[in-house]
Structure formats: C-alpha cells, structure tokens
Amino acid sequence: MQKAELYLTYPKADYRLSACLIYAYACLSMGQIAHARYALNEIKKTLAEGAKQEPHIRAIEAFVASASLVLLHLPLPEEMPPMEDFLPLLPPGLRAFAMYVLAHYLYLKEDYSQSAGIVEATLAMGGENYPIPAIYLHLVAVMDYMSLREREKAEVHMLATWKTAQPDDLIEGLGEHHGLLGGMLEAVIKPNWPEDFKRIIDITYCFSSGWRRVHNPITGHDVADDLSTTEFAVAMLTARGWTQQKIAEHLNISVNTVKSHLSQVKKKLDVKNRKDLKKYMLL
Fold it and tell me: Which residue of 34, 90, 212, 282 has the lowest C-beta tally within 10 Å?
C-alpha cells in the first residue's frame, strides 16, 4: 500500500493506473475501504481524461478498467473492450493476466465453457511461463469446471495452482478466490497442507471483508458476510444444485455435518430455501 501510494498522482497515466489498481487491492485486505474507494475513483478520473493518450497507454487503460470492474464484481460492461485493440500492445505477462480477466468476465456471465477454453488456450500458448497470471488462470478454470460439475478437471487445475504458488508462497490469489472455488480448497489443499490452508483462510477473511464493503453498496447486492468459509462453500454448492450427499463426498465430511452447516447458513441469513440462498452467493 505504501509503495503504490507514491505513484497515485504520478504524471504518466500507465504508472498511475497500475498503482491505483495495486493500491485498491492492498487496501481491501487491510480494511482501508475509504482508501480503496479513492483509488477506484482515481482510475475513473484517469480514464475520463484519457481519450488522447498514446495507444499503449490506452491499452493499459482498457486493461485496468476491465480488471477493476470484473475482479470486484462491480456492474459489468455489456462488452469488454475489443481485444484486438489492446492485447497486442500489452507485454506478454500482462497479456496473460488480461486473458484471465476476460475468462473471469465470461465466468460471471455464466459462459463457463468459453471461459475454460480461453484459460486452456492461454496456458497452452505460454501463459504457464508467467507464475502469477498462471495461478489466476488456473483458479478461474477451477471456478468454471466446478460450475460445469466436472470435478476431476477442477481438481487438476487446483493442484496446478498449488504447484505454481507453493514454492514462492504466492497464496494471496487462493485466498481472494475462496468463495468462487466451490470448496476445492477444503477438498484438495486442507487435507495435505493444513497449515497452509489456515493461512489461506486468514487471507480470505481479510480480503473478503474489504471486498464486500466495496461491492455490496455499489451493486445493491448483499453477498453474505457472516458465514464461515466452510459454511460459504456448503451454501455455494447447495445454491448450485448439489445434493447433500455430493457435497459431503466432495468436502470429505459427513452428510450430517453438511446438514449442520446448512442449518447454520439458513439461520444466519434468514432464508428458507435454495432459491432465497442464491442471492447471497457469488453465482
């Protein structure tokens, strides 16, 4: 946060936009919500002033604008900026991350198959060479395949994420995405790396608290903010139509434990059925 703050008013727009995006995310995890909103407003202000910028600056603008909307699940544009206009102007690693943003956008539009296809193609064409984009690409593939109920493919990508993240402890992205992963952290990471799992969950609580305090007021949605991570995973899978037996098998817990978690969820959210539950979930 301190490093990025130095560049929030930097004369060059590409530096300024990059700093604002990094600053906003750092502030979310630190609970500095007013600062995060300030950074997002600075992004808007820079974009409003950018009509006459050089092409590579406009490419950065398109990338940052898309990332700030999509990754915070703020009101989405009807269409992403034309990729042919800005992707070739981004450096390769940033280009791979931009493809993750596009895949995440398609996930939010419930176009899971196309999103997964973009991930697979990007990884196959060199995206694996850039560890941080690779982590995020694999994570959105987990999200897609869990939504498509292709658990085995989701597990392959979860393990690929971990293989890339573990050596340098790049676990922030796993914590950020917990609510979208359909319990895959609990199913795959927790049994074999319990201490790392605890640290990831700590990140989840810090980040998601800030994320909701920006997301909920802006969108008018009310994503659940008082559930444990396991309760959220059970609720997410239930809202997606999974049976209690399937959830129990997936999370390696008993059906009675699933029922207990679901009972707590309904009590905390004051809902009675699956339909009402959906509005609190990141579907």
Answer: 34
The per-residue pLDDT string of the chain (283 residues; one tens digit each, 9 = 90 and over) reads 999 999 998 988 888 888 999 998 899 888 898 998 888 888 877 777 665 667 777 788 888 888 887 877 766 556 566 777 788 888 899 999 999 999 998 998 889 999 999 999 999 999 999 999 999 999 999 999 999 999 999 999 999 999 999 999 999 999 999 888 989 999 999 999 999 999 999 998 888 878 777 766 655 555 556 778 888 888 888 888 888 898 898 888 899 999 998 888 888 888 877 777 777 766 5
Residue 281 CB: number of other CB atoms within 10 A? 20
Query: From the centroid of its chain, how far is CA 71?
Result: 6
Residues 6+ away with beta carbon under 8 Å from 282: 73, 179, 180, 223, 236
Task: Give me the helices (H) in the chain, please.
Answer: 2-5, 13-30, 33-48, 55-71, 83-86, 92-108, 112-124, 131-147, 151-165, 172-176, 184, 190-192, 194-219, 229-239, 244-251, 255-269, 274-278
Q: How many other β-carbons are positioned within 10 Å of the β-carbon of residue 27?
A: 23
CB 25 within 8 A of CB 13: no
Query: Please, what sign has the CA dihedral across residues 219, 44, 52, 21?
Result: negative
Nearest-angstrom CA–CA distance, 167 and 254: 33
Coil vs helix vs strand at 57: helix
Quick one: tokens of 256? Answer: 């009675």
